[in-house]
Amino acid sequence: MEMFSSAVVGELVNRSVSFLFSKFEKETTVTVQEDLQRLRHLLLRSGAIVWDAEQRYIQSKAMLLQFMDLRDKTFMGSYVLDAARCRATIGTGVRHRNGKDGANEEMVSSLEFMLRDMKEFVMFLASCPPLYRQPYSAHMFVEKCMFGRHMEKERVMKFLLQTGPPHSAEKGKHLDVLPIVGPAYIGKSTFVEHVCQDERVRSHFSLILVYSRNCLKDETAAGFRDNCLIKHQNDNALEEKLLIVIELSWDVDDETWERLYSSERSMPHGSKMIITSRSKEIVRFGTTQALSLKCLPTEAYWYFFKRLAFGSDDPEQHPKLVSMAMEMAHKMKGSFMYAHIASALLRANFNIRGWTMVLTNMREFMQKNVSLLGEEYPDDLNDHPQSTWNLTKQKHDEYFMLYEICPRRSGAEDVPDITMMDLLFGCAQPRGKYEVLIWKSQIPPYFNYVCTCETVICEQ
Kindly report the CA angle at 55 between 200 and 133, in degrees rounded to 5? Predict the structure, then answer.
């Protein structure tokens, strides 16, 4: 009898515990779903404000900082929401980088608090003049405009528009120089181009020159100006001021730099110089603190890539595709070039089968390059060739070796007819060594990125 009673009591306890756990799990699920729904509505509001602000010229520094905070929160909220949906619908997916399930509630509270203080910002925003006359949809705006460099741009603008005594005067120099450094294809030339296109800059300087030969080694002081491109000439400027932009691939020796710098000391007061390079060594030539361009944060890069990949389609209607896109975004390590190439492949095959093919080949591509180079995406293809293959074939009977990428400015006549898409989908089957158009940028300076390629037949 005692054994029977103990068994009954034990069974009751087990059922009670199971009931409590089931109830707790159900309540937790409901709470999470409610948080996600609230987060979605908040992102619709914050996204609308960010969308409007990105298309306006915000002069107030305080407003700009407020906008940047809201934009960063919007990127983070979008990332948290998509990661949570991937876990809920697929059972897998990318976890939030903090690894906390409470990130949803924390994100909701943070975004709600910020939106409460945005009423005055929205009112003042209406008085800010628009930057773009032609309306763009969200994905076209991301594809055709510089993304995520607002604070960096304002810092450069402050340097260029300074009207007081130059920084260089304290160092016995004659010309202010701002170095801008960053990895290959991070967008240094694109960034400087957008700065130079700003009306504030164009009205401030009477002449903007760009030197883009990548190396100053054999450059003479007398012929330097002749080898510069005239980016903008303002004949109505109140006073003569020059802006010279020097684009280098790597470092330059001190003797060459001093010779060039000394030859430009007669430039009118208020003239400035910007020098860009992959090499951090050029910071020693600066008369002010160098600007380092880095990859976008994870959340911002995901927002950028998602817009490119889905275009005008609603990601919420394609949860499985979102999960695959998130994995791709993490694998691409913040590369703008790979984001554009991958998104073009995805939009050309907008279905589960097509995206699975791209993701599978991306995994194989990374494994192949890790085995060859010890890294997934090297910064410079000039020193580290990579390999890829026809995506439509299940068995790889040949590889395409990619040796180097060279950006060529818009209008160049030597742009190859064969594109990377032609190779990847078997539309072209060249042999030997040849050039391929990797990517054609849709934003100034409209570079055509050309790669030297070679077809290698696999041994049977």
Answer: 80
Report which residue type is found at 340. Answer: H
CA dist., res. 290 & res. 287, Å (int): 9
CA–CA distance, 153 with 146 (Å, rounded to integer):
11
Contact 72, 56 (CB under 8 A): no
Rounded CA-CA distance 194/149 in Å is 10
Residues whose CB is less than 8 angstroms from the CB of residue 316 and which lie 6 or more positions away in sequence, other chains included: 85
Among 307, 346, 298, CA closest to 324: 346
Q: d(Cα 68, Cα 50) in Å, to the nearest integer?
A: 9
Cα–Cα distance measured from residue 182 to residue 196, given in angstroms and rounded to the nearest whole number: 19
Q: How far apart are the C-alpha atoms of 424 and 391, rounded to whole Å?
A: 5
CA–CA distance, 386 with 294 (Å, rounded to integer) = 23
* pLDDT, one tens digit for every residue, the chain (460 residues): 444 445 544 454 455 445 444 544 444 454 777 888 898 899 999 988 988 888 788 878 888 889 889 999 999 999 998 988 887 766 554 544 444 455 678 888 888 888 888 888 888 888 888 765 444 444 445 555 678 788 888 899 999 998 766 555 555 567 899 999 998 888 898 899 989 988 889 989 989 999 887 778 777 777 788 888 888 888 777 778 899 999 998 888 888 888 888 877 678 888 899 999 999 999 999 999 999 998 888 999 999 999 899 988 888 889 999 999 999 999 888 888 889 889 988 998 899 999 998 998 888 888 877 776 655 555 554 556 777 877 877 777 788 888 888 888 776 667 888 888 888 888 888 888 889 998 888 888 888 889 889 888 876 5
Which pair of tokens denotes residue 322?
A: 């979102």
Give the tokens for residue 52.
């409007």
Q: In terms of residues, how long is the chain?
A: 460
Neighbours of 14 (CB within 10 A): 10
Q: Which two tokens stand for residue 64?
A: 């700009």
Count other Cβ atoms within 10 Å, centred on residue 409: 13
